[in-house]
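$ ./design --mode recover --in tokens.txt
reading tokens...
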């Protein structure tokens, strides 16, 4: 799809102490939703701080293909939305590139429209399971006209004349599945209910409320969330300031922890509690991370993070923490490679169906660089080597996965020998500024 077939390797080498103040790009989850909900709402939405990564741009293109007007003016993105229930049938397939969030949420958003929509993506996205979204959509009356085997993309949806509201218990911890059903509910008469036994990131609920949707969340005595949305209501354009992405901040953060003597401040990071599991874990490992200037911005908790080089020790990361740090396990595994003792991570089933099989990709990358680790069905244990002695010297297969590429480049900054990743191209999907930001802090990365 968008990426040339010739891979673009990069190599990270042992670096002197990192220092400086940086801002990471806008949160990817909030950026996708800003384009989607802005494109759907009536009137104007203005967005600052948007992540201008390839994944989010694909979502913007999809919304444009369905009738939204989206343009950039200075630092601001300005959207004229189509109106809830008023999206147009796209003229051609919607190409989501590498973006699971864009594809799955849009399937929910448009699946219930009385129109035909085709979804395509790159080799990584075409391997990922879409049945988790298609199953509830089928219950609402959506036809999957065509799909690659195992409910994979490319696939074509045909919506019903009028969708049926459902009550759906999400069978895995997935914000994408929850969101797809809620978005399908927006174009469905009556109340659509999502039952979420394990809480995942709550950006869809919060932002839809901000756009004026009639949505309520109730948590029962067992901690199970019941989210009810009323369909066919009006959404109204909003002004959104997207905070920095904690999943991107994770890379300079872990780099500063493992490179001795580092002192790095990362400003304006989203601290929504459904996203801060990595920070909790690193603090337990003995990391020096100070939360400065804690504040509220646009209804979200935000802070600056001051991070200093630290001697880490291994911990057990409980399975129930996985949803709040699901995208951060690869870089946590890198931090664990420099910790004293063993780090055990459990409850990692969902890592198998990310942009790559991240559990296998991380384990193979660690092994290639001399790290003693064991991969279980849904667990990973890593026995660290403080100081990075003997680590590095390998080449990591990134499997079209941006977070695998960035994690192992971070690893090379503190390993005795350099670490090479076979392809850096996908970093542009979520963190186009990664190379410049890291080298600006003093990281030795060559391409
Ligand atoms: C996301 C949800 C998570 C996460 C992804 C972004 C979202 O995926 O891994 O990067 O924005 O809703 P799952 O829903 O598959 O856990």
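writing sequence...
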């Amino acid at each position: 799809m968008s990426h040339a077939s010739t891979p673009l390797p990069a190599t990270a080498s042992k670096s002197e102490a990192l220092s400086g103040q940086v801002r990471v790009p806008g949160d990817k989850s909030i950026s996708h939703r800003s384009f989607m909900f802005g494109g759907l709402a009536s009137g104007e939405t203005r967005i600052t701080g948007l992540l201008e990564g390839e994944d989010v741009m694909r979502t913007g293109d999809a919304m444009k293909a369905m009738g939204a007007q989206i343009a950039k003016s200075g630092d601001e993105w300005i959207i004229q939305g189509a109106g809830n229930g008023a999206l147009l049938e796209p003229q051609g397939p919607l190409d989501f590139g590498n973006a699971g969030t864009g594809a799955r949420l849009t399937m929910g958003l448009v699946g219930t429209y009385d129109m035909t929509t085709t979804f395509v993506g790159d080799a990584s996205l075409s391997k990922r399971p879409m049945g988790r979204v298609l199953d509830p959509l089928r219950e609402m009356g959506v036809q999957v006209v065509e799909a690659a085997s195992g409910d994979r993309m490319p696939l074509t949806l045909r919506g019903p004349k009028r969708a049926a509201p459902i009550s759906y218990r999400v069978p895995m911890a997935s914000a994408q599945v929850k969101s797809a059903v809620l978005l399908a509910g927006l174009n469905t008469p009556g109340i659509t209910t999502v039952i979420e036994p394990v809480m995942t990131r709550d950006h869809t609920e919060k932002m839809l409320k901000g756009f004026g949707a009639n949505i309520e969340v109730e948590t029962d005595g067992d901690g199970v969330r019941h989210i009810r949305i009323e369909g066919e209501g009006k959404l109204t354009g909003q002004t959104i300031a997207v905070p920095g992405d904690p999943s991107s901040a994770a890379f300079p953060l872990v780099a500063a922890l493992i490179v001795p003597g580092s002192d790095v401040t990362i400003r304006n990071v989203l601290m929504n509690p459904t996203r801060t599991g990595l920070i909790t874990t690193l603090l337990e490992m003995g990391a020096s991370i100070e939360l400065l200037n804690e504040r509220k911005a646009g209804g979200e908790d935000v802070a600056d993070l001051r991070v200093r080089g630290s001697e880490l020790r291994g911990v057990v990361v409980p399975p129930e923490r996985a949803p709040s740090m699901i995208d951060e396990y690869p870089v946590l595994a890198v931090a664990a490679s420099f910790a004293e003792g063993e780090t055990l991570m459990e409850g990692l089933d969902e890592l198998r169906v990310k942009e790559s099989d991240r559990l296998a990709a991380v384990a193979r990358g660690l092994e290639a660089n001399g790290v003693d680790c064991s991969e279980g069905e849904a667990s990973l244990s890593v026995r660290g080597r403080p100081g990075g002695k003997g680590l590095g010297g390998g080449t990591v297969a990134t499997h079209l996965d941006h977070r695998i590429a960035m994690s192992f480049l971070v690893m090379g900054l503190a390993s005795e020998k350099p670490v090479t990743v076979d392809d850096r191209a996908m970093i542009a999907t979520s963190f186009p500024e990664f190379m410049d930001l890291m080298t600006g802090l003093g990281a030795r990365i060559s391409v």
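exit 0
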